[in-house]
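Dear Dr. H.,

I hope your travels went smoothly. While you were away I took the liberty of generating a structure for the chain from your last submission, since the lab meeting agenda had it listed for discussion. I wanted you to have the full record in hand beforehand rather than looking at slides cold. The sequence, exactly as received, is reproduced here:
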Amino acid sequence: MLKFGKTRAATTLICTTLITAGLAGLAGCNKAQQTEASATTQSVTADAGAAMADAGSAVTDAVTPDTPQDFATKAASANMLEIESSKVALKMSKNPDVLAFAKDMVADHTKAGTAFKAAVGKVSGVTAPAKLDPDQQKKIDELKDEPAADFDSAYIHLQKDAHKDAVNLFDNYAKNGTDATLQAFAASTLPTLQAHKDKIDKM
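The corresponding predicted structure, in token form, is as follows:
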């Protein structure tokens, strides 16, 4: 009986030790899992915060209005580029669709240019450039140098880019501009620019 008692006591001690070790192991696992989960949560939260910050920055950039002078400079430059490139097209293209579009560009943008000058004349301290800037003049020069076989595609590509930029410029200022006169001009001109863009995008 004494031997049996010692064996039973030893067994009980071993079982208690194993249970204690097992609980400690489980506690260690739980702690490790909690630490890992916490780190993952912090990482996800940080990533989400960064994404929201980037989105907020993009929205801010999208609606930041140009100053009246910036708008006047960009609008005048865009108008001159579309007129001058279309004058080149009228001399060099043989494509009836391109010629018809170029003719409309010269007429519509000359009319818009007159309205633009009248609007700028009412805004104190704002002026508009009278000639193309160097980058735009380079585009015109490159267009003139295009081989006859490539001219139409080059002109269409230039007009697509120009009207995309113009629509964005005028839409932004019509919605967010800080000068009422230029804002009204942008809003009244935007439908014509959008119609031009829709037409050239299909060519």
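Two observations you may find useful: The two ends are 105 Å apart (CA to CA). The chain has two domains: 1-64, 66-201.

With kind regards,
E. W.
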